[in-house]
Amino acid sequence: MNLSIITALLRKDLVLFFSNRFFALITFLALFAYAILYYLMPAEIDESLEMAIYAPELPTSLLNELTEQGMVLIPMESEQALKDAVLEGSYPVGVILPTNFIPNLVAGQTGQVYLYFSTDFEDEFKDLYAILFTEIAYMIGGKPLNIEVTEEILGEDRSGDQIAYRDRLLPLMVVMILMFETLGLASLIASEVSTGTLTALLVTPVRVEGLFIAKGILGVGLAFIQAFLLMAIIGGLSQQPLMMLVLLLLGSVLVTGLAFLIASISKDMMSAMGWGMLAIVVLSLPSFSVLIPGSVTNWVKIIPSYHVVDPVYRIINYAPTWAEVGDNMLILAASALLILGLGVAVLRRKFQ
Q1: What is the domain range of residue 81?
Q2: What is the mean pLDDT of residues 121-134?
Q3: CA proximity to 228, closest of 43, 35, 42
Q4: According to the per-residue pLDDT averaged within each range, which of 121-125, 242-246, 348-352 is highest?
Q5: Mean pLDDT for the chain?
C-alpha cells in the first residue's frame, strides 16, 4: 500500500473526526476533566477515628491510650453540645460517659454508656462501638477480657499508608478515556459504511488493506495519545514508565479492535454510539475491583479491560516488576490481537 495514500486517508479521517463537535469537545474535555478531578481528590486517606466525647471523670491516661490507638476524641462541654454536634453532622459518633460511670465499674456495678450516631452512619459498624466500650469498661473495672489475640497482616501491611481514592479511581479513568476514543472511531466507520463512503473509496486506487491500516493507526493513535497525556499530567509515568507505555499501547489496540466490531454491527452513527455506551459500561466493571474492593468477584477477569485495570493500579501504587504483571500483559496482548483480527474480518465482509 502506498504510504502517501495511507497518509491521505489519515488526514481525511482526522478532519472528519474533529469536524464532529461532540467528539472534538469530549476528546479534550474528558482529558482535562479527569486530570482536574484527580488533583481535586485527596492525595491521602485519614485513618483516624474521630468522635465527640463527654466524660467529665474519665482518666487522662485512658484518653491518651485511646488517642494512641488512632481514635481522635473531641471533648464536648456538655451532653447537649455533643448531641447537637452529632445531629449537625460535625461528628459521626458521640459518646457520653456519665459522672457515675467509673465509680459504678469499680464497685462492680453496671456502667452506662450512651452512644449517639449520625443518621447516615452504617448499621454494621454500630455494634463495633458497643464492643469497644464494653472492653474499655472491663479494663477500667480491673477485669480485662480473658482473650488472647494474635494479629497478623496477610500481604503488604499498609497501615498508615492506605491508597488514596484518587489512585483507586485512576484505572477507571484510563478505561473511560480509551473507550471514548473507541466510540468516536466506531461512529466514524459506521457513518462511512452507511453513507457508502468506504465502498466509494475502493473504486479509487485505495485498497482494503490500506483502509484498515489507516483506521487502525487513527484509532490506536488517538486512544494512546489521550491516555499518555492523562498519565503525563497526573504523574502516572513517574515509575515504571516503559511498562505503563506498553500497557497503554496494548489497551489502545484492544479498544480499536472493539471499535471495528461495534462498527460492523451498527447500522449508522447513532447505533454505533448505543453499542459503544454498552461496551463502556461492560469494560468499566473491572475498575470496581480496585475502586471498591470486594464489590465484584473473580468473574470480571474474563473481561479484557481487567488486564488494563489491574496493571495500571499496580504500577501507580506498587511499582511491580515485569514478571509480576507479565500474565496480565500476555492476556491483554492476546485479547487485543484476537478482537482486532475479528473486528477487521467482520467489518471487511460487511462492506465488500
Answers
A1: 49-140
A2: 73
A3: 35
A4: 242-246
A5: 77
Q: Round to whole Å and give the CA distance between 76 and 163.
A: 32
H-only helix segments in 69-141:
79-87, 101-106, 123-140
Q: Looking up cell 452504617, which residue turns up?
A: 122
Q: Are residues 206 and 341 in the same domain?
A: yes
For 307, residues 6+ apart whose C-beta sits below 8 A from its C-beta are: 301, 328, 329, 331, 332, 335
Residue with cell 474519665: 58
Query: In sequence order, what are the residues at sequence separation of 6 or more whose Cβ sits closer than 8 angstroms to the Cβ of residue 168?
Result: 290, 291, 313
State the cell numbers at 93: 459518633
Domain count, the chain: 2
Question: Does residue 151 lie within any of the structural domains?
Answer: no
Per-residue pLDDT tens digits for 314-337: 888 888 889 888 899 999 999 999
Say if 28 falls within a structural domain: yes
Is this structure's pTM higher than 0.85?
A: no
Are residue 188 and residue 300 in the same domain, yes or no?
yes
Whether 304 and 331 map to the same domain: the answer is yes
Domain identity same for 94 and 194: no
CATH label of the domain that carries residue 75: 3.40.190
- State residue 246's pLDDT score: 93
Q: Cβ of 253: how many Cβ atoms within 10 Å?
A: 22
C-alpha 104/C-alpha 55 separation (Å) is 14
258 and 321 both lie in a single domain: yes
- CA angle (154, 156, 157) in 5-degree steps: 85
Question: Based on the domain organization, do 115 and 196 belong to the same domain?
Answer: no
Round to whole Å and give the CA distance between 58 and 131. 18
If DSSP states are collapsed to H, E and C, what string results for 155-197? CCCCCCCCCCHHHHHHHHHHHHHHHHHHHHHHHHHHHHHHHCH
Its sign, for the CA torsion 213, 214, 217, 220, is negative
Specify which residues 94 forms β-bridges with. 52, 116
Residue 153 in domain: no
